[in-house]
Amino acid sequence: MVDGLLLQHVTLLTCSAYRNQLLNVFARPSLVALALQMSSGARKEEIYGCFRFLRDVFSDEFIFLPGNAVKDFEEGCYLLCKTETIYVATGNILVTEKGDTVLEFLRGLFEPFVECYQIICQYLLKEREDYFTEKQYLARVRTFTSQLLDQGASQCYDVLSSDVQKNALAAFVRLGVVQKRKVDNEHLFNVDEPATRKLEETLGCKTAVRRAATAKL
């Protein structure tokens, strides 16, 4: 056992680490694929809103340049069009006959991150302490997720990664889901429950993404 992790967990996390090094290549088309799934319609603007939401949430996991959301979206769409996965017609993004297989593959690459962040949201909603340190957070979220895995409630071993846990916490602070303040040279965190619940529901497609204001796509 390594720091509370079973050898099986360590092996799976090692495999995930190798996979994750390649994911930046697929980030933009994969986020478009996820956005297509999240969106309730085919309008390009609506799908862009979902893409931008996902990009904002996972910007600590992947390499995105600030202010390039529209360009990243267009690049993702271009690559999917080039591979004849989707096509754009009268402001709608439509999937081709053979596109479902490609989209399923791309979503499969990134769905573990979505599930990781959902699980961490679920942990935060169960956090009983008003304030906690990063060290306490890491220990408790690992215990929470290990229990889910042991119970068979999840097969998402990526959530045991301390990198994912730290990136999620940084993202939640940036998004205002978790408040961060410094007390006696130590950073303390506090959960905004309504915001956390909304984020968890949005990641789970239970709540619609608020439409992003943007120039005409």
TrEMBL record:
One of its GO terms (biological process) is ether lipid biosynthetic process. Keywords: Acyltransferase, Transferase. Residues 8-180 form the GPAT/DHAPAT C-terminal domain. GO terms for cellular component: mitochondrial membrane; peroxisomal membrane. One of its GO terms (molecular function) is glycerol-3-phosphate O-acyltransferase activity. InterPro entries: GPAT/DHAPAT, GPAT/DHAPAT_C. PANTHER family: DIHYDROXYACETONE PHOSPHATE ACYLTRANSFERASE, GLYCEROL-3-PHOSPHATE ACYLTRANSFERASE. This is Glyceronephosphate O-acyltransferase. It comes from Rousettus aegyptiacus (Egyptian fruit bat).
